Amino acid sequence: MPPLRRSWRLAWLSRPVNMIGFGFFFLVVAAGLLAPLIAPYDPGLIAIRERLQPPSLSSGHLLGTDHLGRDIFSRMLYGARVSVIVGASVVILSSLIGIVIGLFGGYSRRFGNLLMRIIDGVMAFPEIVFALALIAALGSSLTNVIIALTFVYIPRVARVVHACTLALRNQEFVLAAEALGGKSFRVVFRHILPNTLGPVVVQGTFIFAYAVISEASLTFLGVGLPPGTASWGVILAEGRNYLLDAPWITTFPGLAIFLLVLNLNILGDGLRDLLDPRSRKLL
Questions:
Q1: Burial letters 219-229, b for 16+ CB under 10 A, else e
Q2: What would the 3-class secondary structure string for the chain be?
Q3: 283 exposure class (CB count in 10 Å sphere: 0-12, 13-18, 19+)
Q4: Mind listing the pLDDT tens digit for each residue in 199-254?
Q5: What's the rounded Cα separation, in Å, for the pair 143 and 129?
Q6: pTM (two decimals)
């Protein structure tokens, strides 16, 4: 590896804020994946005699219990799994579809403008309102939440890829590939697509954060995941009636959502500096 190239990568890794963002995100993913091994209780186990117990090590409930005596710590771990599944699924699906739409819209001179005007029309709807309408039509379930949020965030990816494609379409290496007889499909996916992946990766971290917030918001409003599901949004929704008597029920999932979104934004900013050559001189 050339010394200059290695230097800015090491500079990125040496930034504590970047490592904190990546480390917290990795911690949440690990907690979600290992929830069945880490959780001390079944997240749905009801113990009425232990209801509304405050956080305590001696009682065996590290983060306390809710109004049904369920262990908050166990439900938080399984809630992390739900957030990771929703965020990762929405990022992957919206990126795959958005990349195709953005590439076609930016490269096609005949149908590109029409396609992007449709995307603009979809983006005109507030995201939460659009998601609410889709969930109302599809029904409340984890799969339907993922489908609804995927449709909500496809335009974001499509817009980013479309802008990159427009900038690359008239570059010399693309024109040279076309002059040598390269077919449109080959030119787009061999020469243009690789140069759009950096912005898409950065956008993906932000979409992950938006998806986590949107899932919790939809569930809090009663149209997301079904009641009783171990998710951060459900814990918030069920704990709002006990804000004065048991504030810990809503404090911990709210804090988890805040920290996850904050660190995902930090991670996204760091990845932008890493993948954008114009930002490397600042490292």
A1: bbeebbbeeeb
A2: CCHHHHHHHHHHHHCHHHHHHHHHHHHHHHHHHCHHHHCCCCCCCCCHHHCCCCCECCCCECCCECCCCCEHHHHHHHHHHHHHHHHHHHHHHHHHHHHHHHHHHHHCCCCHHHHHHHHHHHHCCCHHHHHHHHHHHHCCCHHHHHHHHHHHHHHHHHHHHHHHHHHHHCCHHHHHHHHCCCCHHHHHHHHHHHHCHHHHHHHHHHHHHHHHHHHHHHHHCCCCCCCCCCCHHHHHHHHHHHCCCCCHHHHHHHHHHHHHHHHHHHHHHHHHHHHCHHHHCCC
A3: middle
A4: 888 888 889 999 999 988 888 888 888 887 888 888 888 888 888 888 888 999 99
A5: 18
A6: 0.85
Q: Quickly tell me which residue has 């500096």 as its tokens.
A: 273
Both tokens of 152, joined, read 């909500």
- Token duo for residue 265: 């934004």
